Amino acid sequence: MLDADDFMESLTRVANGVTALDPAVVAKLLGAPRRAEQLGVLTYLGASAPGD
Questions:
Q1: Which of 27, 41, 45, 47 has its CA 20 to 30 A from that of 16?
Q2: What is the superkingdom listed in this entry's lineage (predicted)?
Q3: pLDDT by residue (tens digit) across 22-47?
Q4: Spatial separation of the C-alpha atoms in residues 52 and 46, rounded to whole Å
Q5: All structural domains of the chain with their residue ranges
Q6: d(CA 52, CA 49)
Q7: How far is Cα 33 from Cα 19, in angstroms, rounded to an integer?
């Protein structure tokens, strides 16, 4: 948060029990690959291993 007014507004909201989230952090979390998707790729690769 670069804007002091935005920061103070968020601080007041948190003090009143409201959750404040940084949009940049949320974007990174939503853009991160999901573990279940990664395991699916590994399972697929394991199923096609040579020697089967």
A1: 27
A2: Bacteria
A3: 888 888 888 876 666 666 666 655 55
A4: 10
A5: 22-52
A6: 7
A7: 25
